[in-house]
Amino acid sequence: MATRIGKTTLVFSNKPSVIGYGSVVGKKEFEGPLSGEFDTHDFDSRFGEKSFEKAESRMQKIAVETALRKCSMSENDIDVIFAGDLLNQCVGSSFGLRAMNIPFAGIYGACSTMTLGLILASLCVDSGAANTAAAVTSSHFCSAERQYRFPLEYGSVRPQSSQWTVTGAGATILSISRNKPYIDRAAFGKIADLGVKDANNMGAAMAPSAASTLLSFFKDTGSAPDCYDAIITGDLGKVGSELLYILTEQNGVRIREKHIDCGLMIYNLKSQDVHSGGSGCGCSASVLNSYVFHMFEKGKYKNILFMSTGALLSPTSTMQGESIPGITHLVNIRI
Amino acid sequence: MATRIGKTTLVFSNKPSVIGYGSVVGKKEFEGPLSGEFDTHDFDSRFGEKSFEKAESRMQKIAVETALRKCSMSENDIDVIFAGDLLNQCVGSSFGLRAMNIPFAGIYGACSTMTLGLILASLCVDSGAANTAAAVTSSHFCSAERQYRFPLEYGSVRPQSSQWTVTGAGATILSISRNKPYIDRAAFGKIADLGVKDANNMGAAMAPSAASTLLSFFKDTGSAPDCYDAIITGDLGKVGSELLYILTEQNGVRIREKHIDCGLMIYNLKSQDVHSGGSGCGCSASVLNSYVFHMFEKGKYKNILFMSTGALLSPTSTMQGESIPGITHLVNIRI
Asked: Residue A133: helix, strand or coil by DSSP?
């Protein structure tokens, strides 16, 4: 059973716990600082498939299969899977998982998808709607570039505020368990749109929603940055992280010492030519389901906030002159 | 608290009830057989906006505002809203609801979105994660045609198996209440893909998933078509409905006498040139949140199955030679 505290915070009473997780990345991500953390990688980022979209679907399947293997489960043991991605009509998920015999709930949160899926899977497990539930998401640099921006062959110049879409996927399996990291509290984010229109500056578009979700959570729970081992955002990058510091400090909350961003961890910003950092659903998904859960296993994390950040734009909305709505969902993971 | 029966069926114990609902449609839908049922319509289907995509967003907002007004609530009373649509990156929802101060959970189920949203909103209300939760979705003929098929100006010929995307939206608000229709049981669907590749024959692509979800539900619950006042599918149309009869009858279950399809109800098939019937997220959403709930109010429905059907394709997947995965979610609504 879930209870509500404050305006937007949920508290789960039955400890929906991380019993399995899996990550898969492409070549560039494997060459980055987290290289040794990922379960699987592929050297040409095609994963044996004929198109980038099919490669993305394949990554989702691999991530789920890896997570299942780690907890010695089969697809028949999963009562529901929450899945989504950045591709039009979320085909990364539907084609990736269609051969699996798992009840399928499609979600769309742009790059906030991993956390959105975790919240919904937690709800199912906590309430008894599922004994075991899963969440998975993915992104692929090549499928995202040609869909959102330009075909790769065009060779467009990318401004310094732009981010590099992670080729990667991550899957988490939740069930009631003991001695595993569990989702203690969570919050669905609200859409925040301060009028940023630059599709090459997602960090700026997403930072206001990250600040809003985080400040609400602190208020609802009466907690502060010091209560947590880390406050991890999805893909704010350099620009967005700086803006998050400014927006939270305007409200008297200082998170610099606790904050890390998956988009800043997954690449070497100095040598990998990714400008403001990594982005994409696969960014927070692959880092959560490798480095972050490894930190729990090593005993270095005991209590963290994990917040995937999403920019809810489409090429059509941008062409019609719209600004970029941002959204940030939050989970509090403890052991 | 939710319990599970059989393989995929959820039973809610706290009666998440329909306390408010709203529907909005375009010109063609208002000229159809359900004309008098809808709350709002617009004569040029633009709803005062400059683009079809913005018109679709506007419809979602109107649907939610209508539903709120009917239960004398404001947006601040809603703890979470589940929203999705057919547009790339679901911009119908994110732009339609961005100005509302409501925690936002994006979902993607293609035309199954209304039922998917209802299940998740029910889960939140039933488990205590929300006091009040909402679900909304939309589709627009003009935004869907140019995104999925051809620009309207092209004037392409449509085969007889094709369906007409409904211009419409529907919103439902759920809370614990008495003497209102409530979501008693539900099931997340599994993806079914029997290899149909014709994007002009969605009914055939979706029918196998509808049969699978319905047969599982009957098996899990030990119930039969006779137990229900109606078995309502979303948008199988003429072709898909016939296939559903064949597929269920192969398993000894006859639903013909109980079955109606929102896609066959919303238009006059003889005079409105819609070929196999209506389709789109807005089809089941606008019919549920008008005709179906009115039937409960009139006392003509006491116990129904409502199943929105979705085709999880994208233009890209079709161009890459993929078949069309179908999905059908189910809710059992009673009073």
From this structure: strand
Please name the residues between 142 and 201 in chain B that touch chain A, using a CB distance below 8 Å.
147, 187-191, 193
> Would you call A326 an interface residue with chain B, using a CB distance cutoff of 8 Å?
no
The per-residue pLDDT for A270 is 94
Pairwise CB contact (< 8 Å): B53 & A317: yes
pLDDT of A156: 85
- Measured between alpha carbons, how far is A205 from A323 in angstroms, rounded to an integer? 8
pLDDT band at B7 (very low <50, low <70, confident <90, very high): confident
B198 Cβ contact partners less than 8 Å away, ≥ 6 residues apart: B161, B204, B205, B324
Q: In this predicted model, what pLDDT tens digit does every residue of B36-90 receive, in sequence order?
A: 999 999 998 999 999 999 999 999 999 999 999 999 999 999 999 999 999 999 9
Distance CA B22, CA B229 (A): 23
Q: What is the DSSP code (8-state) at residue B256? A: T
Phi, psi of B120 (to 5 degrees): -70, -40
Which domains are present in chain B? 15-176 (3.40.47.40), 182-334 (3.40.47.40)
pLDDT at B101: 92
CB-CB neighbors (< 8 A) of A100 in chain B: 191
Pairing of strands A230-233, A259-261: parallel
Q: What number is the ipTM of this complex?
A: 0.98
Residues B121-155 have pLDDT tens digits of 999 999 999 999 999 999 999 999 999 988 888 88
